Amino acid sequence: MDIEKLDSFMTLAKVQNFTSAAEQLYISQPALSKRIGSLENELNVLLFNRIGKKIFLTHEGEYFYNFAKNTIANYNLLKENIIQIKNIESGTLKFGATNFIGVYIMPKIIKAFTKKYPNIDIRMTISSSKNIISQLETNELEFIFVSDYIIGSESNLITQDLTTDELKVIVSKNNALSQKDRCTFQDIKNQKYISKGDKSSQDSFIKEILDKNGYDFSHKIIINNQEAIKEAVINNIGFSIISEKSISRELELGLLKAIELKDIKFIRKIQYSYIKYLQLTPAATEFLALAKNIYVK
Asked: What is the reported pTM?
C-alpha cells in the first residue's frame, strides 16, 4: 500500500467526484480509477459507492479514511524528521494553539525562532482546544499549546508547563472602578459581566472558580469574540475577566484598566503537549527549547 494511492483516496473522499479529484491530483481520470481499484482489490472491499457522478464512502471506506489520514500524517512527519536530521536549517514546523495563546504568547517565540532559523516554514493553527487536540492525535500537528484545564491526564501525551497567566477584571476608563487597583466581588456583582459563554473553555474555568466560592453574576452579556468583548468593555457596557496579556495595547492607551479581584484568583498554567510515542523533529525540539528559555521563570 503506497502513499500515492492513499493520497488519491483521501482526495477523492473529500471532493466526491472523479473528474475534480483527478484535476487536483494532476492525473487523468482513468489513472485515478486505477489507483482506487487497486486499493479496493488489495483490501478486498468496496471503498466507494458510485451513484451517478457522485461517489460516497462505504462503511468500510469511512473506517479506512481514518487509517489513511493517520498514515499520511505519519509519513509526512517521518519525511520532515529526515530532512531536518540532515539539515535543521530547512523544513516545516506545524503546531497549534488556542486563540489567546496563539495571538498573545506565540509571537514572541516565533520571532526568536525565525531569527535563528529563517528558512524553516512555520504553520501555526489557531483554533479551539477540541480542534487542535484532534489534529494532534492524527499527527497533523506536532505539538500544541493550551491552558492547563484543557488536557487533563491523557496517558498518550507528554505535557509540560510553560508559564502562568492571571486573568483579571477589566473595566473601561469611564467606569467608576477604574480608579481602583483592587476590588471585591461586591463591587462588580451588579454590573454586566461580558463573556464568551458556556462553550468557551476559559469561561468554564472562570465559572468553576466562581462556583467554588459561591459567586455568580446575575447580569450577563454573551459575545463569542474576544476583540468584540474588549470593545464592549471600552464602551463601558460592562466588565469582563480576561488575561492582562491580551489588553497590553489598550492599557498603554489608557482605554482599559485591569483590576485585581481581592476575593478570588484566576490563575492558570500555559502548557504544551505532544504525543508520547512520537519523536519530535529537530525543529520542534528547538522551538520548545526557545519557548522555555523565554517564558519559564
From this structure: 0.71
